[in-house]
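Listing 4. Sequential folding, example run.
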Amino acid sequence: MITLLLSTAFLALAFLFKKPFIRLLVKSPIDNIPGPTPESFWKGVFRKVFNPNAQEFLEEIARTYGSVIKIQSFLGDNWLYIFDPVALYNIVEQNVFEETDGFIEGNKLAFGEGLLGEQHRKQRKMLNPVFSIAHMRGMVPIFYDVAEKLRGTLLKKVQDGPQEIDVLSWMSRTSLELIGQSGIGYSFDDFTEEHPPHEYATSYKQYAPAAYKFVFIRNYLLSTLVKIGSPRFRRSVVDMLPGEDVRHLKNIINIMHDTSVMIYKSKRKAIAQGDAALADQIGRGKDIMSILMGANMSASAQDSLTEDEVIAQISTLTAAATDTTSSALARVLHLLAQNPDAQEKPRREISEAKETMDQFGYDQLDSLPYLDAICRETLRVYPPVYMVPKTARRDTILPFSNPIKGLDGSEIREIPIPAGTNVVVAIAAANCNPELWGPDSYEWKPERWLKSLPEAVSQARIPGVYSNLMSFLGGGRACIGFKFSLIEMKVILAVLIESFRLSLSDQDIHWQLAEVSSPTVCEGGVSRSQLPLLIQRV
């Protein structure tokens, strides 16, 4: 057993040191790009960049070094941290840069062949129709059903006066139920205190921080480790690894996979029984997975998905939609608690609009200007995902909007990027670039969206799919469900803002960056993912 582990470790370390060894022999154009001083050749600034408390450091290097920054990673491996608009366009639109090998393999291990890697284009083609505006209009009543259940539960909790409530927990449960009913036709939660959250809800909430502990292994070793031996051999190696963190992550993944298989089998059985059986299910056969599975059955052999790929969609869609949406909702509610005036404006807006209708449809929700401004500004300043690593799959040239000065004093307008080079799409930095948004770019000001945006923003032609922002990325890897997420947010916010007034509690809240940003509270020296806010009826 020990020999097996040592052999595997030796092969992984041999690969780990291969790239730095080559770097010592071959100079790279990236060497001439300015960036923060590494802690050492061994560590670089890896621990400062990929760190739950990295926000201040990332903002500092953006202000100091501009929109193209060299960040030295482990063993002298140079990455580029980028928020230059032209460079971003070439990264997301030119089909040269893909997710890193470690990211793809990590998600395969956790979710299977989802909307990542080689299967991406085939699967996205099949999923595009179910994220259309026409289909989402039909989803709004489902969103309201979930929102009203949440509202009813919170009303009971505050019936005797203001109460401190962990808003993150309820936003997580709500986001999971939203994608559960509308996405996979399954209910995870009845929103009662008597019934604790579904074990899937608990697992997915723990997944991001648990996986983030292995970010070094994912970035540098995982793509090699998955090529060593057979799947059975690799599972045996994982089973032998010591440490509670490994066992915890494995248990989380097992629960998510088992739940996805259970949902898939139930859905497959209903489809086989016909439309009447589907109509009896949650989602009434109009949920994303029912439509996907129906389309898959009639697709050609070339375009159809395997059973494992369909099961992976359940985990991928659920995890992606739940984590990011709950983070965004929690951030909005925290900001509204911090800014009482900004909380009152959408409340008046919603109240006035409700004089002519009881429940908003898709178009009515989209026509509430201040609610829309709050969502846009929150996603601009505080995107749930702050940065995304990418890898160049072939040699390319990366041009810049404006020339930068190299360490040797030369003017650099473009840079050759060798295949295998890692870059970081700096989402938050791109959204808050003061050269585009002005000196108050890092400040949360919803009112900026109620007037014309700065001319520099429109001229920059940011390649994001949403509102001159990179929050949902752009190009072929843009978030396929971004409109779905936005309408979910607006339904939940419209219901909560109309019914409840939020204020800050006495507890100190600190937002951490993991795979997805999350609010934390320190209790007894231990940080826990929570957002305690005081809630009372309006």
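-- end of first protein; second protein begins --
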Amino acid sequence: MSEHSKTHSHILPLKIYLSVGVALLALTAITVGVSFIPLGGFNVVVALLIASIKALLVALFFMHLLYDKKIFMIIFAVAILFLALFITFTMFDTMRRGDIDVMQEAPIEKNAIIYKGKGSDSAAAPSMTMPD
């Protein structure tokens, strides 16, 4: 008695695999080309967008997500949405990194005994304090 598998393998023509491979190479070339264009903060956005398209192509065709049960596609989509949400919140931090107050050097206590030298006026060692 032979067992019949309820799952069916999805054998795709070689033409599809080659087309997806060429698309991945083209997207990689576009990513490299765009990196030389000064877009400011949008360089990261463009690179992430292209990387997302490449990941989608790999998931749909090489992982056969396009031809599998739809629940797997839903799980994949929800995971990608959460990843995009986390990356978006992380990108908010990159816009605010320069807002930290600059520390200025100032003596801790000008007349502290630790700063008194042998018979000479030694300068007070600098410390870090917040500006006024």
